[in-house]
Write a structure and sequence with these properties.
The protein has 302 residues and is α/β, with parallel strands linked by helices. 37% of the residues lie in helices and 23% in strands. It contains nine helices and nine strands.
């Protein structure tokens, strides 16, 4: 009889270390928002990957950084909560940035959750540095913390990712699978759709207001022809932000809607009718409902 394995794997690291790219590479589908902006992952998105008879449930945590606002604090609490709940923790760092202040802080935090937990290191973006730099960084990190294994990877290009996935598959606990084999993410489609729209906004608006807005899927209607009508609300903090999101003659919101709809259709393999509205809600960062929509705990931000 075949022995099945299943377990939770938490990916932790600084913002922009490549956690979402690694998750998407592991799972083989785009389940986590990927942009060049820091702090884009707000909720603990789980992606499910099958490797042989093992099921790996990935917890893609928000990047760990110095929190300043309630939302920041809730995101950091979610990241450490995801790590503390996991069977295996993978710390991801960037090869070309080395040991930053943020990495130092994370190493200190790992000491607090290390007992009874498997912790490995993945050094990402290895194509950006020469071999001697990589070897020195590997030694330095392992001198500072007792990692079980170290993997040298490029999440973007896929180098070394298979080795990491194989190792994880052999190390998660024996037991029944936690999800049906064909299920790649445990996020409801409403939240995945909202994340896709938020990604398009973040890419389109660049530095203008990426953290001052949130997107919620307000209504999802399945239609007889197999398509779905999806109504979303983009909440912004101020009237001026509404104008930025709409753009000249509504050009920005139209472009965002088209890009989000096309990605959602490709993801779901069917027609989607997407309708976006922009609403000013100055205090959304202090409303508990907004946090629960993002899968965060409002109390963690206090």
């Amino acid at each position: 009889m075949t022995t099945t394995r299943a377990g939770f794997v938490a990916l932790i690291g600084e913002p922009n270390a490549g956690k979402s790219t690694l998750l998407n590479r592991m799972v083989g589908a785009k389940v986590s928002i990927v942009t060049h902006k820091v702090q884009t992952t707000r909720a603990r998105i789980r992606g499910v990957a099958m490797e042989g008879d093992s099921q790996l449930v990935f917890v893609d945590t928000p990047g760990l950084f110095q929190p300043r606002r309630r939302l920041d604090r809730a995101m950091v609490a979610a990241a450490w909560g995801g790590a503390a709940d996991a069977d295996i923790v993978v710390l991801l760092i960037e090869a070309h940035r080395g040991i930053t202040e943020g990495v130092e802080r994370i190493l200190q935090g790992l000491e607090g959750i290390a007992k009874g937990r498997r912790i490995s290191l993945a050094i990402n973006k290895i194509d950006r540095v020469e071999a001697p730099v990589l070897l020195a960084l590997t030694k330095d990190m392992n001198d500072r913390f007792g990692f079980e294994r170290t993997f040298l990877i490029s999440a973007e290009k896929g180098h070394g990712v298979g080795d990491l996935r194989e190792w994880l598959a052999g190390e998660v606990p024996e037991g029944p699978w936690l999800y049906p084999e064909d299920q790649i993410a445990d996020l409801p489609m409403r939240m995945i759709a909202a994340e896709m729209t938020r990604e398009k906004l973040t890419l389109r608006l660049h530095q203008e207001l990426p953290y001052q807005l949130t997107v919620e899927t307000e209504h999802w209607e399945e239609r007889e022809d197999g398509s779905a009508r999806v109504d979303q609300v983009i909440y912004v903090m101020r009237d001026g932000h509404k104008g930025i999101v709409l753009g000249h003659r509504g050009e920005t919101i139209k472009a965002v809607s088209k890009a989000a709809r096309e990605e959602l259709e490709a993801f779901m393999g069917r027609r989607i009718h997407l309708f976006l509205q922009v609403k000013v809600r100055s205090g959304w960062m202090d409303e508990s409902e907004r946090y629960s929509e993002m899968g965060l705990d409002f109390k963690d931000g206090s």
